[in-house]
């Protein structure tokens, strides 16, 4: 779907896309339905299948899932960007699996630190995830830092 088509032909001011995912923001649900019909028609001509199970028209205040995050419009007008729970679960599991590898000497502490800092930096940069990062920091410290400094 061409950006210019969405912005200039459909006159949608707020539009974003990443690879095969896209969103349109407009105050009229009726107009968004019209846009959806036009876009699915254009996609059909290009032999692109639109997954209607994943396609939704929702209020921003209910939250929109996009690129592994949930975006919600607050009453103040601020957009709250929350991370998906899957990434946090995966990192928690990884940290717990890394612990015996560190103890056995099969993984260096520096490799572990880099992996965790990469996940942490991505979360802090992309999302409003202060508390989730803090809880993961506590797990990281409990598993690796306290253990390392106490010598036990």
In short:
It is built from five helices and five strands.
Which terms would index this structure?
alpha+beta, three-stranded antiparallel sheet, two-stranded antiparallel ribbon
What secondary-structure arrangement, pairings included, does this model have?
Layout: H1 3-9, E1 14-18, E2 21-25, H2 29-45, E3 64-66, E4 69-73, E5 79-83, H3 85-104, H4 109-126, H5 130-150
Antiparallel strand pairs: 1-2, 3-4, 4-5
Helix pairs in contact: 3-4, 3-5
Question: What do you see in this structure?
Answer:
The strands form two sheets. A three-stranded antiparallel sheet has the order 3-4-5. A two-stranded antiparallel ribbon has the order 1-2. The chain has helices at 3-9, 29-45, 85-104, 109-126, 130-150, and strands at residues 14-18, 21-25, 64-66, 69-73, 79-83. The protein is of the alpha+beta class and 152 residues long. The mean pLDDT is 88. It is 55% helix and 15% strand. A hairpin with a 2-residue loop joins strand 3 (64-66) and strand 4.
Give the fraction of residues assigned to helices: 40-55%
Our measurement of the CA-to-CA distance between the termini, rounded to an integer number of angstroms, reads 57 Å
Number of E strands: 5
The biggest sheet, with number of strands, parallel, antiparallel or mixed sense and barrel status, is:
3 strands, antiparallel
């Amino acid at each position: 779907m061409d950006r210019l088509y969405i912005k200039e032909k459909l006159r949608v001011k707020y539009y974003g896309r990443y690879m095969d995912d896209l969103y349109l923001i407009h105050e009229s649900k009726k107009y968004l339905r019209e846009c959806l019909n036009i876009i699915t028609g254009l996609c059909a001509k290009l032999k692109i299948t639109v997954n209607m199970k994943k396609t939704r028209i929702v209020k921003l205040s209910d939250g929109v899932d996009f690129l592994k995050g949930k975006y919600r419009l607050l009453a103040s007008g601020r957009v709250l960007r929350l991370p998906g729970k899957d990434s946090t679960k995966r990192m928690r599991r990884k940290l717990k699996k890394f612990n015996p590898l560190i103890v056995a000497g099969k993984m260096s502490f520096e490799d572990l630190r880099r992996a965790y800092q990469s996940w942490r930096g991505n979360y802090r940069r992309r999302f409003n995830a202060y508390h989730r990062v803090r809880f993961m920091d506590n797990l990281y410290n409990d598993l690796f830092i306290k253990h390392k400094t106490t010598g036990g």
